[in-house]
Amino acid sequence: MSLKQVDGPPGAPWDRDLKGTFEKLTVESEFLAGNPLGDPARRPLYVYLPPGLKDGETYPSIYVIQGMTGQLDMWFGRSTFEPTMIERVDDLFDDDGVPRAIVVFVDAWTSYGGSQFINSVATGRYMDYLCDEVVPFIDERYPTEASRDRRGLTGKSSGGYGAMVVPMMRPDVFGALASHAGDALFEVCYQIEFPLTARILRDKFEGSFDVFWEQARAADRFDWNLFAAPLNIYAMAACYSPDENEPGKAILPFEIATGRLIPEIWERWLRWDPVRMAPDKIDVLKSMKGIYLDAGRSDEYFLDLGAQAFSNELHKGGVDHTLVLFEGTHGGLTYRYPQAIRFLAEALST
What we know:
The protein is of the alpha/beta class. About 35% of the residues lie in helices and about 15% in strands. It has 12 helices and 10 strands. The strands form 2 sheets. The protein has an 8-stranded mixed β-sheet, with helices on both faces. A two-stranded antiparallel sheet has the order 5-6. Strand 3 (about 60-65), helix 1 (about 85-90) and strand 4 (about 100-105) form a beta-alpha-beta unit. The longest helix is centred in the middle third of the chain and has 17 residues, at about 225-240. The radius of gyration is 21 Å and the shape is globular. The protein starts with 20 loop residues before the first strand and ends with a helix.
C-alpha cells in the first residue's frame, strides 16, 4: 500500500499555512438577545493579526462587514483558481510596505437575510452590537488603539451601505470608511425591484409575503430567480420601515397588488439613503481619515450610479475621498477587498 497519512495541511490550492494569525471566536451578545426574529445572540467573530506585530505596540483596526445574506463562514468560500478572503488578507499583509492593522470580521446575519447594520424594531440592535459590543470587546483583548481615528469600516453591497452609514451615525467609533458597491441612491437601486416583487408574489405566492416566507423557508434550495427580489425588498423594509406596532414585521413602500408606490412609507426609506444623509453629515464626513468608494460599471443594481451620487455630495461639501469605477458587475468582488483594506490601513496609520 503506497498511500500514507502525513501531518499538516495539504497546502495550496486546498489549504495553506497563514503568515499571520487567524482566530475564530464565539461571542454572546447582550444587545441581540431577545431580538424580534429570535435570531441567535451567539455569533461567530473572526480576528486576523498580521505578521510583524510588536509587543507593547498598538495598531489600527479594520472591521469587515458582509452583504445581504452573508454569514461569516462564507469568507472561507473559494472561487475557481482564486484565494479565499482570509488568504487574500494574509497575502496583503505579507507586503512589508502595508502598515500593520488588525482585521475583524463581523457577522450581522438575520433570518430575513441581513440587518443593514442599523438598529430596527423588526430585526434587532445591530448597529449597537457592532459599535458598543464588538468594538470594545476587540479593544480589550487585542493590541488595537482605542480611538476612532484608528478604526475603519469596510464592506460590499449591504456591507458597503453599513460602511457608509454607520460612520456617519457613529463617528465616535469609526474614523475611516471603504464601500464596495454600497446601497445608495435608493430610487435607482431599490425601486426597480418593487414591480418585480409584486409580480412574483402575485404569480407564485398568492400575493402574500406570509406564503412567500413559508415556502422560502421550506425549500430545499435557495432559488435566486424566485426568492431573491422579494427577500431583498422585505429585508430592506424591515430595516428602513419596520412596523412599530408589530415587532419583527415590516411595512412595504408599495402596494403588493400593483407595485404602486406608497409615498409616506417610501419617504421613510429615503431618510436612510446615504446620498440623502450626506449633506447633513458633511462635517462628520470631513472628519474621516479616509473615504474610499468603488463599484463595477455594469453593476446590476446600478450601485455604480449610487457611488457616483454619494461622491457628488462629498464633492459639494468639499470632502476629500477616492472613487474608483472598474469594469465589472456586482458579483465576484472579493478581489477588491484587499485594495480597500490597504487604503484604510494607510489612512489610519498617519
